[in-house]
Amino acid sequence: MKTVTICVGSACHMKGSHHVIDELDELIRRYGLEDEVELKASFCMDQCTGNIGARVDERQIYDLRKDNVEEVFRREVLGNG
Description:
- With 81 residues, the protein is an alpha+beta fold.
- Helix content is 37%, strand content 22%.
- It has 3 helices and 4 strands, in the order E-H-H-E-E-E-H.
- A 4-stranded mixed sheet has the order 2-1-3-4, covered by helices on one side.
């Protein structure tokens, strides 16, 4: 099982992390991955000055924004990006 963790701390919340979580939840359902991908929220992931803090398993993701969620999902979760 893959674990996708999204920061919901103040800075990431202001950048749209709740939108990202909603979209990831929809993508997980659309691809039928409910039993393969766990979506979690976390407070500060030490990316406050960059894009939205995110991890897939233990790998830090540095380019997640609310306008590229599906692109990052395809690359990091599906592995075809």
